[in-house]
Amino acid sequence: QLGDTALWDRWLSDEDDNNEDFLYSVLLLGDRGVGKSTLAEIFAGVSEKEEEEEEVMKDHSVYLIVYSVTDRSSFESAGELRIRLRRLRQADDIPIILVGNKTDLVRSRDVSVEGLCRRSLKKVSVEEGRACAVMFDCKFIETSACLHHRVDDLFQGVVRQIRLRRPPRPH
Ligand code: GDP
């Protein structure tokens, strides 16, 4: 199962290019309820996609694989989605950002007891997220969509990925 998707697309003004606009699209993938629509709505309008799985996955500027740091099974789904994406776009250098959302819910994620750090089994630590991104060979960020925390950084990351991959303009 692919899981849920949300799409965000908008015009980006290219300052290096006489403000010539170009359209880009960002596909958000991940389990239902992890915060994809909330994130997408912060940036732009969202259109739900209902096409065939392969069509949905193909040809986006950037892919965000989103999980909730409070939901370990959504973190496991993120791994499966990464594998699917790689299968679909084998030859490509796919721009992917792994996003651990809902950090506002985990202030007490790590509980220190007598010098030991006891971690809740259900919750996903920032170290686990980071390690997963290294394995996936992608960027990583933790956000709180509802507090708008680090959402701007995520947006900057998306723009950076797009700019890095723009073909050079002919002289
Ligand atoms: P989607 O199914 O992945 O598109 O998830 P939604 O964006 O619809 O969010 C599911 C629920 O989680 C909604 O009730 C949101 O308000 C809530 N939610 C989304 N992001 C956050 C967050 O960062 N923190 C908290 N506490 N709730 C969030």
TrEMBL record:
Belongs to the small GTPase superfamily. RGK family. This is Small monomeric GTPase. The chain holds residues 137 to 307 of 353 of the full protein. The lineage of its organism: Eukaryota, Metazoa, Chordata, Craniata, Vertebrata. It comes from Muraenolepis orangiensis (Patagonian moray cod). It comes from the Eukaryota.
